Amino acid sequence: MPQPHYRDCIEACAAHYGDDAAAMRAYLLEGHDRAMQLDNRGPIVFDSNGNLEPSILEAYRKYGFYVFTGVLNSDELQDIEADLAALKKRFPVNPGDKVAADGTPALGADCTAPTLVWSKPLGDPLGGSSLANGRHQVKLHEPKAADDAPEMAPFILLGSLQFSEACLRVYGHPQLLKIAEEVNGKDFAPFNETLFIKEPGIGAAVSWHQDGTTHWNSDRFDEDIHGFNFMAQVYGSTAVNGVWVLPGSHKLGKVDITELVTASGSERIQGTVPLVCDAGDVIMCNRQLVHGSFANTGFEPRITVNMGFHRRSSVLDVMGAGTHNDAQVFDDALIAKRSEVIGYGIDARRQRFPEETPYVYQPFLERGLDYTWNEAAKSSLHDYNALDLSI
Ligand SMILES: O=C(O)CCC(=O)C(=O)O
């Protein structure tokens, strides 16, 4: 479990915090230790009825997150890495450029729905801004990047499944979809899919926030109403480059983060722990948890294949938050259209891993729908994230 260079990364990170270096070092070390003591990690286990082992759901509900170990095998990780390398070659050199470095059309250049989100290296572009409905209430420390760092770099890719078949196949993972069913019901609905790109020395911070927007004052409010994200890790995740969370905060309703920071005496919110895990592990993270990540001042990359799921009742006929796409009402037809990617994910996975038993999605069964992953399906995913179920 110890990450390679784990202590060196912590030292490198602390060194970027000036007078706060000692406090940052202690925060990282103590947070790591506390995270490793929590009883919320292990392989995916189903009981004899095919349901998720109850103790796993209990721990998830208690802390608001669970680390599933060893979910993606080395073949699958290699597929993702190959896709990532190809994607990076297609990134525009500067925000808004229509071509990549080699002069070919840039990734997303022909998309109307949002794709790449950029930041200055080690910046915190969302913190303290009105972006994403102003949910990132404070700005985190923006360490100084190396002189040879690029001026701007992509740190989020929205609508990622239209660009990466390997990520689409993770989305179709039968055990993960079964877990989505257990938490959100057999008729669960998608949310969105993204890549978080945290290259060492470059990767931006994502300031403390809770993800939900629309349901904080709902009569039906509960800890699951804004859904959850799976965060599959391509290289693992550490105290330095990973997401930090405040365990149990998914039950608290809307939290005043500015007040938490003030009470903690710094941006190092007391009681938080990092999501620490290895390559191939998948974290399930309640969207209502207070969470965020610091700029990646360590030596290791973190790439998260993020994919979220909702209860149908949380999205059906609801006016969206407009956080990830234009705000719109999610009627049954829109949800059905947005759910097609589940069918394509399941079939793309079946083609690559024929020895697995594919997941059966109840709404497709009820409606007699069947999806085949092929070139036509691929084209149909263009701009699919314009229908993200953002709440
Ligand atoms: O991966 C990160 O650094 C941030 C993730 C996050 O904020 C989210 O998934 O809502």
From TrEMBL:
Gene3D superfamilies: q2cbj1_9rhob like domain. It comes from the Bacteria. This is Phytanoyl-CoA dioxygenase. It comes from Parahalioglobus pacificus. It holds the Pfam family PhyH. InterPro entries: Phytyl_CoA_dOase-like. One of its GO terms (molecular function) is iron ion binding. Coiled coil: none annotated.
